[in-house]
Amino acid sequence: MTYALRPAGTDPQDAQNGTALSSAPEDRPGSHSFVRIDPMRHILLPLALLAAAGTSPGQDAERASHGLGAAAPQISFEEQHGDFIVRQYQLGCLSQLTYLLGSGNEAAIVDPQRDVTHYEEDADALGLDIKWVILTHTNADFVAGHTELARRYDATILISGESGSLFEHDALQDGDRRPLGDVELEFWATPGHTLDSMTTLVHLPGVSPDPAYIITGDTLFIGGIGRPDLVGGEITPSVLAGRAFDTMQRFKTLPDATKILPGHGAGSLCGAHLSPETVSTVGAERATNPYLQIESRTAFISRVITGLPVAPKYFAFNVNLNRTGPPAVDWKDEMPPSLAPDEVAKRAQDGAWLIDLRGAKEYANGHISGAVNIDVRGRIDTWTGIAVPFEADLLLVGDDDLVKEAAFRFRRIGLDHLGGYLAGGMDAWKSAGQPVRRSELIDPAELAARIAAGTEPVLVDVRTPTEYEELRVGDYANLPVSDAAAFGRVLDRTQPVTFLCNSAYRSSMAVGLAERQGFENVSSLDGGLDAWLDAGLPVIGTMSEETDVSTAMAGPTTNSVPGAGSPMILPEPMEPGAVARAMMDQPQLYRIIDIRPSWQFDEYHIAGASNVAPAAVEAFILGLPAGVRAILVDRDGTTAFAVAGLLQGSAAGETHSLRAMIGGTAAYFREVELGESALRGAVGSSPMPTSAPAADSASASPAAPAPAASAKKPQSKRRSAGC
């Protein structure tokens, strides 16, 4: 069963039909309501909300789901065995996964986020009393709600005895066990990400495999492991990486069918190479996770400590706050202090940081000089933590709704000390006669023309080096916005500079960061690389569309590349509607394999799809259960057919039926999600089913991932990772 958020003011039953109530029930501050919906309607929900808000489908998908999507917890996985229930909550904006476990009349909450109302509501609805609050380690990327839940329920906090925690807790040692109703929870010390990392093994009476689940926190992710460089002090990353190697060997002793429930998904800065899937199995990870395949300790350590992403400035603060015990928050206190324009101007002159919460176009049309544009509809919490000194005097610019949203989300990462907000927003600023600065958003065609004429500005790609290598407009400077201080060290402040990223989210942020450093003429590529690609302009890189399929496959096959003198056997084609139908009626018999670059997959993908590089497709298919049919998907269908064709004569083609989806993800979104020709070719003019058959969770394939919590349209220009 798939879950999604219920829009405020709708009854749980009516939410599926979009029927609003005449009066909304009073919600608790910081609470979010849920409704069960079928696997296809959960894809359509963001569009329904968009329409209800009077917003056109071409506008930003995150704008349409503001406050209801990535910024609110969603139930992304759930299973039941007898009276036992495990429920996984996904908080997209922090890539955070938390859990409710229940048995008998007792519940345990694992790694709770700071706003805890949804755990309370769900426990109450299930007739459970919260007995345990389990911390897999001392978290760095968010402020946990452990002390709040313990206070409200008189619950006991369980955490490793190595944590040095200063709040009241039960100090766990390796091998300790605690009861939860009829279930037994076992705790393994699994250091690597941190010294105090613990994994919870869930033993269900009479259920195979045993353990049925392991909740790994940040030790083991789907496709990756936790980074070892967040502890600080005298413990070096290499030492922790060595401990992680030992932990991985211990995980390998568990049954292949044991399900893995991690602490984060794709987009988290607590690890690298994380999959967007939120559930896996020990067997699946043994086959696909590179960190479970490395046999050499030295090689393992070298890989783990190489290419770590930048850690936001607030991580160290949150470690101390979580170790001490976070103070209680009054979630009803929604707004920071109101400030007049002259006070904001004075504070800015004294060094305050101004965060402009609006969209990139609004910001470009007029903003306070030096204000940093971090759109509230993206990952404002993470990016503010990266870009802004944590103890800075922080002032917000935007309308009241944006300010409320930002203040709420900042508390999740410990930013409780906001200095205030500009009362009346930019309208008040302009009315007060304060100076307004504008920045240019350069159209992709215009920039291309300037490049052709040799008159382009200094171009700076502010994405990560990995993104830059995969796909870029040319061999221009790559200075990630996470190290914005490099702008002043490397660039000429008097020369015109144009920043670019995937969608203009990070590049718009870079404009304000450069202005703070005294740059005189800075601009951003309108729509970013997405708009550049949509305009059909050329790109280079390891994953550009010009990449030869045979090179991308990087492995011998028995078939030739098209045009090489030997025919290639084409796979069975599937219309988008047929794929949707298959995934609804018989999901256990199909696996969607999306072979696009990870940045495209992170922006939008079909629910339940796995993101696999072309070179790894054959090994991935061979790891699927017998009888499962592989459906390859790419952007427009061309590469998927070529890769599937090349695999027809391989071992994967011998053991599994290979298909490719016609028209790629763009066609799927247009025909299935927008319903322009719903299920064309699969069911004629039949309407899309409104419900899916209930699946027996106990009989589901152990390697099958949970469906994605939400989907975004390919044309959306804002990625969940901050674009």
Q: Which architecture name of the largest domain does CATH use?
A: 4-Layer Sandwich
**Inertia-based shape:** globular
Proportion of strand residues: 15-25%
Structural class: alpha/beta
How can the largest sheet be summarized? 7 strands, mixed
Rounded radius of gyration (Å): 25 Å
Helix content: 25-40%
By DSSP (H or I, 4+ residues per run), the number of helices equals 25
Distance between the termini: 30 Å
**What's the level 1 CATH class of the largest domain?**
Alpha Beta
Output the strand order for the largest sheet.
Answer: 3-4-5-6-7-8-9
Quote the average pLDDT. Answer: 79
The total strand number stands at 30
The CATH topology label of the largest domain is: Metallo-beta-lactamase, Chain A
Number of domains: 4
Description:
The protein has 25 helices and 30 strands. A hairpin with a 2-residue loop joins strand 5 and strand 6. With 723 residues, the chain is an alpha/beta fold. It starts with a strand and ends in a 50-residue tail after the last helix. The strands form 6 sheets. Strands 3-4-5-6-7-8-9 form a 7-stranded mixed β-sheet. A 6-stranded mixed β-sheet has the order 10-11-12-13-14-15. Its EC number is 3.-.-.-. It holds the Pfam family Rhodanese.
